[in-house]
Write a structure and sequence with these properties.
The complex is a heterodimer of chains A (about 400) and B (about 425).
Chain A (H helix, E strand, L loop, with lengths): L2 E9 L22 H29 L6 E5 L1 H10 L1 H12 L3 E3 L14 H19 L5 E3 L7 H9 L4 E5 L2 H4 L7 E4 L6 E5 L1 H8 L14 H10 L4 E7 L3 E2 L2 E2 L4 H15 L2 E4 L1 H7 L4 E3 L15 H4 L2 H11 L2 H7 L2 H10 L2 H5 L5 H10 L6 H26 L1
Helix pairs in contact in A: 1-3, 1-9, 2-3, 8-9, 12-17, 13-17, 14-17
Chain B lengths: L1 E5 L11 H14 L3 E6 L12 E4 L12 H8 L14 H22 L14 H18 L6 E5 L1 H14 L3 E5 L3 H4 L7 H13 L2 E4 L2 H11 L6 E3 L21 E6 L8 H14 L3 E6 L5 H11 L5 E5 L4 H8 L3 E4 L9 H7 L4 E4 L12 E3 L4 H13 L1 H17 L2 H16 L2
Parallel strand pairs in B: 1-2, 1-4, 2-3, 4-5, 5-6, 6-7, 8-9, 8-11, 9-10, 11-12, 12-13
Helix pairs in contact in B: 1-15, 4-5, 5-7, 9-10, 9-13, 12-14
The chains are: A alpha/beta (about 400), B alpha/beta (about 425).
Chain lengths: ~400, ~425
């Protein structure tokens, strides 16, 4: 039987906060570093989004439809695209028009809300679903949660929201002897099929590709396909950040040539089929239930949620933020909800992570702050201003 | 009367409070008819010389005006800083080591003899070397200006060796001024022994030791073993001339309780956080601010997060220039919960801005401020009580504010230096 290859790319850009001092609290309620956000987005558009979209479009056309991929694009990224670089949206629309690209659903704000509030979780998922429909004319049927965070309970909620397929990490501590290269189902809802990330092969591309001291370097399409062919299951799920292409792995290390060659070589050699997540879930036979009592994710060595909620700084700021949900629901003020959404982005909590030693490099790469403490102070100053606004508005209404 | 003064810094370029105090002292002395020459390791040229004459030690080549290199070294008796740890030596071996050391120094010193040395005048990694070189230059200056001063005055351990060298070379009496001791910088078991040795030596060589508070006087007597008869307290003062209080538009409507200073063990930041957590349990409409930076900052942040009060307890990081005034202007209560504070000028600044202050009994300022509320640094319940009272009872806040303002305006350097002049006289008229 042909080996299935499922590519899914995560597209996300956070709304980075400006330097917000104590002196700004209750005086200035603009929280974002628009200049930095725009500059970073413009850079990544040029180095990654636009050339990679063009490359994929060409590959899909050349394969006459046998090459397929999936994307999940966060609401924050879509908002920044429309604001700073609408040409990115156009190029995604061209991909959508091929009918060979699946768009996944997630929380609009790339938030950690699934760990906190069921209602608010549903609200953000529905908002994202509507946005995808609006931009790309398709209704997403598969779900991926922020940072592939997943547990039995979260899976069950996702099923209740109408999704039949969900993506998560093939975490070794969950799988044990089992392989990520099969289809599984949610322990509580057999109707929810689970696709698990093959982190070894995914990270060959996402992390190790340009590493010259890695034994697999240089990675070629054929070498990679050999590895895929050796995988023991039905499907190899290659899930990674889209910014891998041209940003994390720069163009001069040959990442674009690799991705260009891969579908062509797969076709020439035979024995490989590209599938999207929903197709895979419909086509493959699930092998077993998967029990995940505690949340897992695709981050760090631990594959848990400690990158965002592992220390007291993260926990306190997270609790303070979600302490506002009730008042905000009563207020229903679009301006406040807009900021509330942006303040929920998981990135803000990631910047406060103190797990420097094992995964510090990755954390540093994505972090605009020098220390987690600076990140915390800045975030709390912003949040303090936001809390004042919510309370003031609440007081005037009641 | 004329004084040769050794300092480490002088406004406008200052890293701590020492430079500001030195400026207040030379101005106050001038007011009291005492002329001064102020020596500092690295002057920039933009210092205000209206009250003193500044000598930049970086401009002075080391030499022995009157005699030979050997005589110079003999008098100055240099201990080579940092290499004077010789454990387990028998008497004979010790003599050899000392002799070798003397030869080595002579060689070392011979090289720098007749040369200028560019001091950084900062508190860097080569601080001890700078301190030793400053002493050589100090000895030279004392000879060159021998007829221009009657007494020598050295501020804090950085300048004590220079003061000793000046005394040796000129034969004039020495006063050392203790603004802080090693015990205010480390804990009892964590005192830098090299610094302690220099401090003790300076105090022993001095004809008088001036301390900024009775608290510090006690440390000098008990921990350095100095004869109480020669230790005199001259409390610090503060110069507010030419300063108008900033008017700042407030953002937050809540009351603000402020801690401002280095976030280090000595300043008692943890007690402030404990007290804040207690007050927040009872009261709404109050925020706490910890302004400054320091080696305990990250720990303080974690502590605030663990208490779950980070929406009401803010950190500003290090404040520069006008931001300090702005912070005072935004405050309703100022708190200095120091574990050990030789004096502590910041509550005076707060009270001058009209902010009622709470200070620890373990600060020198507590000896002179009648209208500041005082608590023991460890007594977080009392601290919380006082904060609560100042926030809740307007009469108390108003009382502290008006009387405190008047009180700090009376703490003038002109008065403090009159006392200092008497100290000089007591040495000269022996």
């Amino acid at each position: 039987m042909a080996k299935n290859i499922c590519f899914y790319f995560q597209v996300h850009q956070p709304d980075r906060l400006r330097l917000y001092r104590f002196f700004d609290i209750a005086k200035d309620s603009h929280y974002y570093d628009d200049y930095m956000n725009r500059a970073i987005l413009k850079r990544i558009a040029e180095k990654c989004y636009l050339p990679m979209n063009a490359l994929l479009l060409k590959a899909i056309k050349a394969s006459k439809g046998s090459f397929k991929v999936a994307f999940s694009i966060t609401g924050c990224a879509l908002d920044q695209f429309s604001r700073y670089a609408p040409e990115i949206i156009d190029s995604f629309k061209k991909l959508a028009a091929t009918g060979k690209v699946e768009f996944l659903c997630e929380t609009y704000n790339h938030s950690l809300v699934s760990l906190q509030s069921q209602n608010e979780f549903r609200h953000q998922v529905m908002r994202h679903k509507a946005a995808i429909k609006e931009y790309f004319g398709v209704e997403p049927t598969a779900f991926r949660n922020t940072e592939l965070i997943y547990s039995d309970a979260i899976g069950a909620q996702v099923y209740d929201m109408g999704f039949k397929t969900m993506l998560t990490e093939g975490a070794r501590h969950i799988l044990g002897w089992r392989s990520p290269d099969y289809l599984y189902w949610n322990d509580r809802q057999p109707g929810l099929k689970l696709l698990l990330r093959n982190y070894g092969l995914s990270d060959d591309i996402a992390f190790r590709f340009s590493n010259q001291s890695w034994e697999g370097w240089p990675l070629t399409a054929d070498k990679f396909l050999d590895k895929v062919a050796e995988a023991d299951g039905d499907i190899v799920n290659l899930f990674m950040d889209y910014e891998t292409f041209g940003e994390h792995q720069s163009a001069d290390c040959g990442i674009f040539e690799f991705m260009e060659a891969l579908p062509a070589r797969a076709k020439a050699r035979g024995g490989f089929t590209f599938v999207t997540p929903s197709e895979a879930a419909a086509k493959l036979k699930p092998v077993s239930e998967l029990e995940v009592p505690e949340p897992i994710s695709w981050a760090d060595e631990e594959r848990d949620i400690t990158a965002w909620l592992g220390n007291e700084l993260q926990q306190d700021s997270f609790n303070k933020l979600y302490g506002l949900v009730e008042k905000l629901s009563i207020l229903d003020d679009p301006q406040l909800w807009g900021d509330f959404g942006k303040l929920q982005e998981s990135d803000h909590f990631y910047y406060m992570c103190t797990k420097f030693f094992s995964d510090g490099d990755v954390h540093k790469y994505f972090n605009p702050y020098n220390t987690p403490y600076e990140a915390f102070i800045n975030y709390m100053n912003v949040l303090s201003d936001f809390i004042i606004r919510v309370n003031d508005e609440y007081a005037t209404r009641n | 009367m004329r004084v040769l003064m050794f300092g480490w810094e002088f406004p406008p370029h200052i890293a701590g409070g020492l430079g500001t105090a030195c400026e207040g002292i030379v101005k106050g002395l001038a007011y009291n008819g005492v002329e001064s020459i102020f020596v500092m390791p690295s002057a920039s040229g933009d210092e205000d010389q209206s009250a003193t004459r500044i000598i930049n030690a970086s401009d002075v080549a080391v030499e022995n005006v009157a005699g030979t290199l050997d005589e110079f070294l003999d008098k100055v008796k240099f201990v080579h800083i940092g290499t004077n740890m010789i454990p387990y030596a028998d008497p004979e071996e010790f003599t050899n080591i000392v002799e070798d050391e003397r030869k080595r120094q002579l060689k070392d010193f011979g090289v720098s003899y007749g040369q200028k040395y560019k001091f950084s005048g900062k508190y860097g990694a080569n601080l001890l070397e700078e301190v030793a070189r400053y002493a050589m230059v100090g000895g030279t200056i004392a000879q060159q200006h021998k007829d221009e001063f009657d007494i020598i005055h050295a501020h804090d351990w950085l300048t004590y060796l220079a003061g000793i060298a000046a005394k040796e070379m000129s034969g004039k009496p020495l006063v050392v001024h203790v603004h802080a001791t090693s015990f205010d910088r480390g804990t009892d078991d964590m005192v830098d022994s090299r610094v302690y040795a220099i401090e003790k030596r300076g105090m022993e060589y001095a004809d008088r030791v001036v301390t900024v508070s009775d608290l510090t006087r006690g440390i000098v007597i008990n921990k350095y073993g100095i004869d109480p008869a020669k230790v005199v307290t001259v409390h610090n003062a503060v110069d507010f001339s030419g300063r108008d209080n900033l008017s700042v538009e407030r953002g937050v409507r809540d009351k603000v309780v402020t801690f401002l200073g280095r976030i280090t063990f000595q300043k008692g930041p943890e007690y402030f956080i404990e007290a804040a957590a207690k007050v927040l349990k009872r009261t709404k409409g109050v925020r706490f601010v910890m302004a400054g930076s320091g080696d305990m900052m990250n720990r303080a942040i974690r502590m605030v997060a663990r208490r779950g009060i980070s929406d009401r307890f803010h950190f500003t990081g290090f404040l520069r220039g006008q931001e300090v005034q702005k912070m005072f202007a935004l405050s309703d209560v100022y708190i200095m919960p120091s574990v050990s504070e030789p004096f502590g000028i910041s509550p005076l600044e707060a009270m001058r801005t009209g902010v009622p202050s709470i200070i620890s009994h373990q600060s020198g300022a507590a000896e002179v401020l009648k209208y500041a509320l005082k608590v023991d640094f460890w007594d977080v319940d009392a601290m919380a009580d006082d904060i609560y009272a100042l926030l809740t009872y307007p009469a108390l806040a108003h009382f502290s504010e008006t009387h405190g303002y008047r009180e700090v305006n009376e703490l003038k350097w002109n008065n403090a230096t009159a006392k200092l002049k008497k100290v000089y006289e007591s040495v000269l008229n022996r």
